[in-house]
Every structure is written in structure tokens, then in C-alpha cells.
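hey so i finally got around to running both of the ones u sent me last week. sorry it took forever, my laptop kept dying halfway thru and i had to restart like 3 times lol. anyway pasting them below in the order u listed, first the sequence line then the C-alpha cell line for each. didnt double check formatting much so if smth looks off just lmk and ill redo it

first one:
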Amino acid sequence: MKQFIEDCDTPSNLPIRNRFGNWTKFVKHMGLEPIKPSISPQAREASIRARKGKRSPAWKGGRHTDHNGYVNIYKPSHENATTKGYLGEHRLVMSEHLGRPLLKCENVHHKNGDRKDNRIENLELWNTTQPSGQRIEDKVLFAKEILRLYENNKV
């Protein structure tokens, strides 16, 4: 091995690389078993966790605008948060105003159309459920259900 090192001009021009292609082939040629780098599953998981959320180098305070123009806030403990821990700021503002998490059938509408304007004065709660049938009895039952759901809430 000493003769290989003495023949080289620069470290990047090592005859080992020229003759064998890479260090692994050279080590195998010398009759040795190459050491493969390995990381334990626990270390790999810790490494992934260390780069998520507030520890991420891309962290910008937990607030960003998505591709639809809505402002999202990082609140992983909120009931309406996504699996990644974010929820729309407009939904958070309405949820805090109502004092409860929003239901799946509820949407928050921006009155002035500006999705970044999340003042409570600009927001209104919409319900997206509809009766499945169009018979009068179905509509009456649906109206009673809506009244029961929202009669004690300050909307």
C-alpha cells in the first residue's frame, strides 16, 4: 500500500482510485471485509425527530401560507389540526370564538374574499350538511336538527 501513496501527485489522483475504481474494491482486493456504515433504528428515528417541527432548519415560527392562499398555524394539540399538526388560522379563530372545535360539516367563510384576513369580523360559519332527500318531512327533520345543533351557540 505504501507504493501506491508514494506514486500519487495529489490526493484526488490516487492510483488506488485509478486502478480499483473505489475504496471498497481496493479493500476487497486486499482480502479484507469492507466496513459498512450502519445506524440503529433508534438513532435513525431520533435523527428524523430532531429535524421536525421547531427543530427543523426550515422552521419559520409555525406559520405559513399554503398553495390555496390560506394561512396555516402549527397547533398539533388542537382537535381540528391535521396529522402534520397544522390548521387554518381562520378555523382556529372561529373555533376560539365559539369556544369549541369545529365540526366536520362546518366551514369558515371569508366575507371579503381575502383568505389572509382572519379577523373575526370578516369570518362567518357555514354548515355544509344537506338533507339527502327533498321530501318536506326530510327538510323539516333537517331544520330541527340544525336548530338543535346551533340554538345555544353564539355564532
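and the second one:
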Amino acid sequence: MAPTFFYRSPLPVVTIQGVDANLNGENNDLPLKAYEFGGIGNAPKEIGNCETWNCSRGAWRRQMNLRVSKSFSLVGRSRIEAIGELFNVLNAKNPAFTITNNQTSAAFMQPNAYAGDFQQPEQRVGQVGFRFSF
């Protein structure tokens, strides 16, 4: 039996004002403040001044995986090993990397997708396999 726990602190996220504040024709001006993901449906937390491109922070990430295997003897030196794996055992609702970064949006600093959604990684899935040795 082998459990694996993944834990990651928030990654840097680009946030933009959503308006052309310096009148250069680009809509990607840095905001005055940096923000951190405050939870699903919650307003983002202010974490200081935004002085660089990746000044804000996304969401924490947690995931528990489990692998179980058992080996059985067959004829002579041959063996068979049964293997079962379960990914995201606790069904953690981890926001995916796509976070709305436009300050003028009603969904500012809210995820667009979650781990486990269609075509997103880390969904709760399992697999069974066998290994023959001879």
C-alpha cells in the first residue's frame, strides 16, 4: 500500500486592470494591488502592491492518491501481481490553472475550470492492472 499526497502553494498569476490606464492602446495594464485567490465564490484577498507581471497568487492545490498491490505465486518462479490505483481519493475540488484575471470582470480571481472537469487533470479515477513475472 502506497499513499501519495500532493500539496502545492499558490502559483503566480497575472492580473490586469482590464482598462487602458496609461493610454498606450493596450488593455493589459498592471493593477495597483496584488491579489490572492480567496476561495470559490469569495472575493480575492489583497496581498500588497503589484510591482511585477506575476504579482498575484492562485489557489492552493491538494490531492491524495493511493496504490495497492499484491503478488501471488504461480507455477515455478512465475508470479502475478495485482495492482490497483486510485487518484484524487478525497475528491478535492482544485481550481484549474485558468483563473479570470481581469479586474473589471465579475468573476475576477475565480476559476473557470476545476480538476476533474472534462479534459482537466486530477479527476477521481481508478485503474486496475496485472503484472506477470517469469
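quick thing i noticed on the 2nd:
The chain has a mean pLDDT of 87.
anyway thats it, ttyl
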